[in-house]
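Lab meeting, action items carried over

1. Structure of the two-component assembly. Owner: GW. Status: complete.
Input record:
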Amino acid sequence: MLNKLLCAVGGLVVASFIAGPAAADKVKIDFWYGNSGDISKRVQEVCQHFNESQTQYEAVCTSQGSYYAAVQNTIAAFRGGKPPTIVQVFDVGTLDLMLSDAYYPANKLMADNGYQVDWNNYFPGIRAYYATSKGDMYSFPFNSSTALLYWNKDAFQKIGKSEAPKTWEEAAADMKALKAAGFDCPLAFDISQDESWQLMEQFSAVHGEPIATKNNGFGGLDAELTFNKTKFVQFVTDLKSWYDQGLAKIKSPNTGEDYVAAFAAGHCQMTLTSVGDHGNIGRTADPNMHWDVAMLPVYEGTTRHNSFVGGASLWVLKGHTPEEYKAAAAFLHFIAEPEQALFWSTVTGYIPVTKTGFDYMKAHGFYDKAPYKGRETAIEELNVEAAGSGPGGIRLGNFLQIRAELSNGLQEIFVNKVSVQQGLDESVQRGDAILRRFEATYKGKELP
Amino acid sequence: MTAGEVFARRPFALRAALAPFRRRERRARGEGRAFFTSRSLGWSLILPQLLLIFTFFYWPAGQALYWAFTLERPWGGGNEWVGLGNFTAMLSDPVYWNSIVSSVIFAAASTGLAMAAALVLALLADRELRGARIYRSVLVWPFAIAAPALGMAFRFILAPEAGFMAYVNHIWPGLWNPALNGADAMACIVIAFAWKYISYSFIFFLAALQAIPKSLIEAAAMDGAGILRRARDIQIPLVAPTLFFVVVINLTDSFTDSFGIVDIMTQGGPARATDLMVYKIYFDGFKGLDYSGAAAQSIILMLLVILLTIAQFRFVERRIHYK
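Predicted assembly:
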């Protein structure tokens, strides 16, 4: 722990030296983000484009290694009085920041600096996730994704099907047929903390089922979890039974191959994961393997609702000069331009966040051919309804810990320690305790 | 690691560092000679270190202590005093007790494994077997490997469907599955952690063994004592102080330094089987942003480690003869 702290401090000192002496005429702003690896390189390219596009400002972009580290390091820097101007905060980290006094609301920043932002240009499904309960945007949606069903066309052809299952009933029949046709692993999944996103959150979203009371928490900090009383119980029951019959298999780094790799390698014929993996699977799968994506299945008789967006948004922090805020506004304006949306979505698997960005990409034929064909499904899934009828997102405190509780409950269910209902009841009960703790921490605070 | 960190992690090292000054002081008084006012010289020499310790150890620790009695907002801007609320919430939670039990099992198993293996290796290397010099250098390397890299490697080696264990599972299907079997997952992190600390303990053991006069061993050999007999009756009793030191360090580190391996290999699962106290602190504090809960857990962990160390000094050290 101490080591980490020393490293962090050392890193800051070094960073400030590097950032210190340089072209004095440009206004410099720091942008800290969490992506690493290939995506980090792409963020750097976006920054480079911005720096080359004008002469007044310079964005210094630094990867912090992970979403968690970006938030942690920014908190440390903020408490130390030296926050970056812009920081990327992942979806479920939104609430902590929103309740703090640390940020300059995006809508206000843009208005103060003379930019007209048409917030209605953002896809409602994306806007709803990050907006306040009154619909105000305090941050800019940046890298955005949603969950899709990935399916192997070659395998489905062997069972005489040319389309992905639309319902879970159909998916169950397909799994049985695939198994009978000699496929060992019709559906790959995992039940660690990270899969709460597609298994519980996205499932609840497309089925229009609440995850928590008070509009999934948008209505107040006193919300209570409800996923032990919804169709999700049915889904876990079915998933467990498919698992017991060998139709669905747990594929994780701990078993040797995670579900994305298992699908890409053709070892498993279906999986549920982010559209952000579309590029990755395209690069790693055998070029002769035919596969596609489809919207997440829903249970028969369910009206489909908008799925939730995943990813992160960009926040501007307090404690900077008006010039720096001008630079930040220019940067945020720049990345929202359609040309940047096309670049960003081409080099990553992320989806455009604005309608103009999407139209621009369609007009350029982005979605017409491989390897990008199919990614428009994500946009469709996020916008099934013109105006979302549900909460549009999740606004619950310490949600990462709640995901861990769900994961613990699911693991107990899958090792036959407890029944499905018991496991989910326990997750909800422990999750509610976390929510009450969060509420007590922010006593007297109102959700914006 | 800087000297400041060494002192922070091993407070008794500070006492040892001060000892020469104390001795000299006594001597100076006893002989009534004019000497440096050694007390002020000693203190001024260690003052920079003390400042470092204060800034990087006591100050954050004090902050954590304060947070443990409040509900702290991660981005600042206020906290609520809750007295012992964080502690009572934690200690009335059966899941937390489960975490304490897991930590104790992990500490005992990994320390036992690491020390036993290191002792055997050190005894062998000490015998100047062919290539002993190579073993001596090579066996030190694992300690330099960062926990995440180590966790990745062992996750692969011990994965049930890939790597080495896949062959074992092929022969006895279903024998090994750390992804779903809690005991297997615990074994995974014990093996990975012990592997790292074998090398650490090995350095100490070998140094201690080489300090034993060769004449003792030779005399025993001439009396007809075999290798095992010599190890049991001469070498191990003579390295007992080192053994004791290494046990204390190993146990302490297994309580406080194992979160990296857990994070990569099991994330505390399956079904909380490897949810060690220190991993819970890391997860709640660093990922969950529950600073106060993590601070309270740190205090509990600190007390537990202090109690364990006191117990060791009180009950085990008495049986060790340093001279």
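2. GW to write a short summary for the group page. Key points so far: Chain A has two domains: 2-144+310-382, 147-307+397-441. The two ends of chain A are 34 Å apart (CA to CA).
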